[in-house]
């Protein structure tokens, strides 16, 4: 039990209530101006706040690495065996794909198609998760000072992760593909039907607005359509697990399992320009230190 | 000195929220330490300090969230202010009283946040209320009560310190 502090003068309450009323008035009467002012301050303040954040994130990653590498080794042998089998299978598939790629190259040259430009990307590290429980997002250690802007796409070599929604001087917030507030234009790889990929409350994703006559089936892969947003065409989003057809509905909806396990993200690539440069200039950039898909 | 203390507290809340609290989450829900700290500062320091610290916490935490800025500012600033007012109206604040207050504040904040999300369908909103807002409110109440108990224990220990010294002097002159 604790006796409360009754020392503060009555005017303190009026001052606090007045300030709260002023805040409400500023936020609701001049939303763009007040939020713009605070977002202008986000850059320099974010630089200061990112220092303890990056220090704690580094410590956290160090402890996690220690745990995973030296203590939590249960089931490692089984995992190794499974991964070896996967490598064998992927080697076989890789050689087939090489063949297909060289055939595509020859045909492209024959048909005189325009050269496919490669996206410009920047690597970043995940240093935290959303500060609330209401959104599924991650925080990256790259921000405005590295040329990161809202709406840029974020991927890993496995597939799409999400898109940047907010930046400070040294950090960026990425809304994950599994968040219900996120929407990315998707394409079913086999049937070429387009739709919109949204997150679900269960933490997976779904493809909406699939045409009713589409011959989509379980196991079909969904990739980015490249029509809107910060993603080039053909990046893996997920695999269809179930298809829902409601009576009287104009479209079908399919549940997806995302390619990327967003719960275990460590490093990601931010797409600065989806169709930024030709292969030659990308090679030049690679030589100067920037990443390539 | 107080400004330095509050600044350090607010700065440390960001890594705590984004890096450490996800490890102690239960079923994917972690407590809103920002709301709890704003309410505690309001209760102990008064309305002005509670409001100022709450707004600062809301602003900084919003930089690291996909959520709306106004919501974070209003919820955290309002929590500090209300706790300050409550601190003057309630004669004896106990951990139970504080936990009930925090439960109510967290519930109101969570409900406003969920129903202001435009892209959610009604069923999704209710699912969020059941699986995020309610557990988080309970978590916040428990954390607030625990922290308040710790803080008051420290204050009582501080008051008892001269007596301890007296006894130790009597035993070992």
Descriptive account of the structure:
The complex is a heterodimer of chains A (293) and B (173). In chain A, 36% of the residues lie in helices and 30% in strands. Chain A has 293 residues and is of the alpha+beta class. In chain A, strand 11 (236-244) and strand 12 (251-258) form a beta hairpin. The relative contact order of chain A is 0.13. Residues 289-293 of chain A have low confidence and may be disordered. Chain B is globular. Chain B is mostly helical and 173 residues long. Chain B has helices spanning 2-20, 33-45, 47-63, 69-89, 95-115, 122-171; one strand spanning 92-93. Chains A and B meet through strand 1, helix 1, helix 2 and strand 2 of A and helix 1, helix 2, helix 3, helix 4 and strand 1 of B.
What percentage of residues of chain B falls in helices of 4 or more residues? Answer: over 70%
Could you describe the largest sheet of chain B, including whether it forms a barrel?
Answer: none
Rg of chain B, please?
18 Å
Principal-axis shape of chain A equals globular
Kindly provide the radius of gyration of chain A, computed on alpha-carbon positions and rounded to a whole number of angstroms: 24 Å
Structural class call of chain A reads alpha+beta
Low-confidence stretches of chain B: 160-173
Output the strand order for the largest sheet of chain A: 2-3-6-5-4-13
- What share of residues are in beta strands of chain A? 25-35%
In whole angstroms, how far apart are the ends of chain A? 61 Å
Mean pLDDT of chain B, to the nearest integer, reads: 82
What share of the residues of chain B does DSSP label as strand, in percent? under 5%
Largest sheet of chain A: 6 strands, antiparallel, barrel
Oligomer: heterodimer
**Helix segment count of chain B?**
6
């Amino acid at each position: 039990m604790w006796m409360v502090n009754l020392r503060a003068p009555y005017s303190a309450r009026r001052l606090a209530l007045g300030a709260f009323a002023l805040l409400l008035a500023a936020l609701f009467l001049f939303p763009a101006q007040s939020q713009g002012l605070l977002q202008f301050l986000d850059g320099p303040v974010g630089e200061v706040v990112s220092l303890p954040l990056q220090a704690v994130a580094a410590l956290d990653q160090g402890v996690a690495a220690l745990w995973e590498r030296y203590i939590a080794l249960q089931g490692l042998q089984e995992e190794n065996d499974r991964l070896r089998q996967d490598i064998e299978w992927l080697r076989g598939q890789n050689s087939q794909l090489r063949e297909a790629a060289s055939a595509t190259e020859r045909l492209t040259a024959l048909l005189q198609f325009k050269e496919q430009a490669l996206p410009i990307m920047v690597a970043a590290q995940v240093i935290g998760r959303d500060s609330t429980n209401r959104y599924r997002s991650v925080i990256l250690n790259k921000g405005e000072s590295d040329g990161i802007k809202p709406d840029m796409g974020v991927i890993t070599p496995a597939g799409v992760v999400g898109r940047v929604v907010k930046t400070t001087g040294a950090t960026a917030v990425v809304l994950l593909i599994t968040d219900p507030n996120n929407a990315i234009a998707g394409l079913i790889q086999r049937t070429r039907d387009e739709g919109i990929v949204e997150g679900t409350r269960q933490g997976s994703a779904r493809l909406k607005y699939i045409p009713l006559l589409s011959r989509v089936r379980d196991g079909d892969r969904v990739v980015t359509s490249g029509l809107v947003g910060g993603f080039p065409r053909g990046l893996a989003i997920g695999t269809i697990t179930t298809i829902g057809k409601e009576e009287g509905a104009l479209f079908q909806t399919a549940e997806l399992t995302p390619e990327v396990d967003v719960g275990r993200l460590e490093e990601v690539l931010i797409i600065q320009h989806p169709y930024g440069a030709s292969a030659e200039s990308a090679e030049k950039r690679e030589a100067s230190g920037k990443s390539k898909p | 000195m107080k400004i330095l203390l509050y600044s350090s507290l607010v700065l440390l809340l960001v890594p705590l929220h984004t890096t450490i609290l996800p490890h102690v989450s239960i079923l994917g829900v972690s407590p809103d330490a920002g709301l709890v700290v704003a309410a505690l500062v309001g209760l102990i320091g008064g309305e002005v300090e509670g409001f100022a610290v709450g707004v600062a916490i809301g602003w900084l935490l919003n930089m690291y969230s996909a959520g709306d800025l106004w919501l974070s500012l209003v919820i955290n600033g309002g929590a500090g202010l209300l706790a300050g007012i409550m601190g003057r109206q309630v004669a004896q604040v106990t951990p139970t009283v504080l936990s009930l207050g925090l439960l109510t504040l967290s519930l109101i904040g969570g409900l406003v946040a969920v129903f202001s999300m435009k892209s959610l369908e009604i069923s999704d909103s209710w699912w969020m209320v059941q699986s995020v807002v309610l557990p988080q409110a309970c978590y916040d109440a428990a954390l607030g009560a625990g922290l308040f108990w710790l803080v008051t224990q420290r204050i009582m220990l501080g008051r008892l310190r001269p007596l301890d010294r007296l006894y130790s002097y009597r035993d070992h002159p």
